[in-house]
TrEMBL record:
CDD domains: HTH_LacI, PBP1_LacI_sugar_binding-like. It comes from the Bacteria. Signal peptide: none annotated. The lineage of its organism: Bacteria, Pseudomonadati, Bacteroidota, Cytophagia, Cytophagales. Gene3D superfamilies: 3.40.50.2300, lambda repressor-like DNA-binding domains (1.10.260.40). Pfam families: LacI, Peripla_BP_3. Residues 6-60 form the HTH lacI-type domain. This is LacI family transcriptional regulator.
Amino acid sequence: MRSAPVTIKDIARALNISISTVSRALRGMPEIHADTRMAVMRLAEELDYQPNQLAKNLLKSQTRTIGVIVPNMSYYFFSAMLNSIEEAAMQAGYSVLVCQSNESYLREKTQMENLLRSQVEGFIISLSLDTNNCEHVERLVRKNIPLVLFDRYADSIRASKVIVDNFDAAFKATEHLVENGCKRIAFLAGPPQLLLSNQRIDGYRAALAKHGLPMSEQYIFHCDYTQEDTLMQTLTMMNLPQPPDGLLTVSDRIAYPAMYALKQKGVRIPEDIAIVSFNNEPISMFVSPSLTSVSQPIQSMGMETVRLLLKQLEATDLAPYVPETKVMPTELIVRESSMRKAPTTQAASTVA
């Protein structure tokens, strides 16, 4: 059950002044004494008062519209998620307004404010790479505006989430490389602040520890998801005194330029280096060699995201809202990039 937004009447009652005085103070009218104007502005900020009439009436609006913010619609994962979200929302009688942050915190914040002005009744959000301060999203939670996060999220935000077990997926992907004879496994990860990437790093480390393989920080490289940075990081990786013979990449978008850089350097895949990635984009089966990748149940994730949001939108009881976290299963799709013969005993001793 969503609570009503703060109104001018609330501010007037708290300060024991008239509604018209509050209204004039908020508009900066000169006839209002400076001390009164300052008190009104201070309390309005403290109570998170929204002067926009549409936002004020969000509780009563019945637009049947959901606001969705994703990092970039050109990414396969997010475009596929949007298809699933829109289909599930339409079946429930809701339309969807979609915005992209382009991996920018400031743009994400602006798009959220734009959607509020458009009277969306709830939000589905996947955070941008640039988002370190989640105050704008936490504000939605404080105002009891229905919200579901998916894929990229922050632990600090008390909201429902639809995610996969990144630790377990990375553990199994790394273990697959070990089982195919890899002894020195590197990880092309995402930016250091990206929670999803760090969870996969933890799974990677745990798999190495289980199999008694050395874990060296020099084998972890953080990429910003651009092709240029990935090419540079890949070449730096292969110039190590002992270059890796196995590689885990945080997403297929990083795997493709990494494979290109390796081929340009004359490194054979999978003979010299076996590769496993994440997201299982459709093109993974058509690149050469075809790419082993972790598949996420995107259609089910989109449907589950909408289900959790509808549960909040349609709540009628007065019980406090308890966020839910839905962890979806993953599947390792094995292809040519990781399948090679295990090294002989003699060869193995030379790469310890």
